[in-house]
Write a structure and sequence with these properties.
The complex is a heterodimer of chains A (235) and B (202). Chain A is built from nine helices and five strands. By secondary structure, chain A is an alpha+beta fold. In chain A, helix 3 (48-56) packs across helix 5 (68-82). With 202 residues, chain B is mainly alpha-helical. Classes of the chains: A alpha+beta (235), B mainly alpha (202).
């Protein structure tokens, strides 16, 4: 989908503000939200692509003005409701309660050793999106390619600023979960991933800082079409 | 659009309500929440990336392995995990300066740098660094690059996680890995700042 989250090249939203230092979590509520990604993933709410799409669906004004971890609250609510786990009316009632009683305790509950073990295990091992595949790569390092103009309605990583642009494949990474299916609830459908180098001149024309600077952007195979075969497969 | 901008109090109440429901469903416990917070506050952070950089500066064979397959090389040091399953390290040289961003969301190599600073996730950095990298580096980070150095911006649009191997500072010949470690900064591994100089830590 075309949305405000797709920020590259957006002008007029003010300077980058860098504080001298800041804590990892700026407030107590951020500490409760951060673990929701891993724990709700474990509970079957979403994969990482769906998680991102839930953030993309946030109202654009809220997206641009709310603190970062509030984005995570929206996507957890979105998929919690969708999976039939969270009743949003109940959530509203509890929100009103805690707003009136900010120091009221959380519900009594027992520890869960398996959940605790999951935290340590997943932090260390991660959950790779790479998939084994025999599918041959359609492109090779050195090929000139163009990002297709498609503007899909659902989740995609086909950022607007690279659509239609021509660049050179500089790395081939193997086969990974395809966000354009996985992020829309349509399965993993893995595809080859490549890094494409675009010159600043190609992306921004006369608006580039320095024409020979460049942006390296990763694409899945269906995002690109061949302009000129110059890589290993050209022979 | 249906914008409701929440106050700090409203956000805190919303989160507590959501947390309470996830606890009731058995999806979260406060014990597991505390553990996850502890990991990213105290255990996983840029000190791990600094160890990798120092070793790469001190050991050319390790550096070659790091540039070939960063996740494999980091695993040699026991460094791995979420949001760094498939990492790529890009090397700064006198001719090339690298900087990372995620323009579509907030992708960042957690196992080596920890959780990203807020400016990295803010719309302003994500908007500007691809189009005006030199201006952003100069104005926001007081980092002025010579015009003859090529800037490469790595937009982390896939699950590959990029980060930067900065240049080894001058005047550090013969330094041990432990001494070199003191020179590495988080910002130099993002590409928005310099390492410390030999004089800084002498």
């Amino acid at each position: 989908m075309n949305g405000v989250f797709d920020l590259a090249g957006t002008d007029g939203i003010g300077p980058v503000v860098v504080p001298e230092s800041e804590p990892v979590f700026r407030s107590e509520w951020e500490k409760a939200v951060f673990p929701m990604f891993a724990m709700c993933f474990r509970a079957g709410f979403f994969g990482v692509d769906e998680f991102r799409h839930g953030i993309e669906l946030i109202d654009p004004v809220v997206y641009l003005t709310s603190p970062y971890y509030e984005h995570w609250v929206h996507t957890v609510e979105h998929y919690g409701e969708k999976r039939g786990v969270l009743d949003l009316e109940e959530l509203d009632r509890r929100t009103a309660y805690y707003l009136a009683n900010p120091d009221a305790p959380l519900p009594e509950h027992a520890d869960d050793p398996e959940l605790l073990a999951f935290v340590d295990a997943v932090v260390k091992a991660g959950a790779t999106a790479k998939r084994e595949s025999e599918a041959p790569a359609a492109f090779a390092v050195g090929d000139l390619v163009r990002v297709e103009r498609d503007a899909p309605q659902g989740h995609t990583r086909r950022a607007r600023y690279v659509r239609g642009a021509v660049g050179e494949i500089v790395m081939a990474h193997g086969v990974f979960i395809y966000p354009d299916t996985a992020g829309n609830g349509l399965g993993e459908a893995p595809e080859h991933v490549y890094t494409v180098k675009f010159t600043a001149q190609e992306l921004w024309g006369s608006g580039a800082d320095q024409p020979r600077d460049s942006v390296y952007f990763d694409v899945w195979e269906p995002y690109i079409e061949l302009v000129e075969r110059k890589g290993e497969a050209a022979a | 659009m249906s914008a409701h901008i929440r106050s700090k109090e409203e956000i805190a109440a919303r989160v507590k309500a959501l947390e309470s429901m996830l606890i009731d469903k058995g999806i979260m416990t406060t014990q597991a929440i505390d553990r996850m917070v502890e990991i990213y506050e105290n255990e996983v952070g840029p000190q791990l990336g600094a160890r990798v950089v120092a070793k790469a500066w001190a050991d050319p064979e390790f550096k070659a392995r790091l540039l070939h397959d960063a996740s494999e090389a980091c695993a040699e040091l026991g460094i791995s995990g979420l949001q760094g399953e498939d990492m790529v390290v890009v090397e700064d040289t006198p001719e090339v300066h690298n900087v990372i961003v995620c323009t579509l969301c907030s992708c960042y190599p957690w196992p080596v740098l920890g959780l990203p600073p807020n400016w990295y996730k803010d719309p302003q950095y994500r908007a500007a660094i691809t189009r005006e990298p030199r201006k952003v580096l100069s104005e926001a980070f007081s980092y002025d690059l010579p015009t003859d150095v090529e800037v490469r911006v790595w937009d982390s649009s896939s699950e590959m996680r990029y980060w930067v191997l900065p240049q080894r500072p001058a005047g550090t010949e013969g330094w041990s890995e432990e001494q070199l470690y003191e020179l590495v900064t988080r910002d130099s591994m993002i590409g928005v700042g310099t390492t410390k100089s030999a004089e800084d830590v002498a």
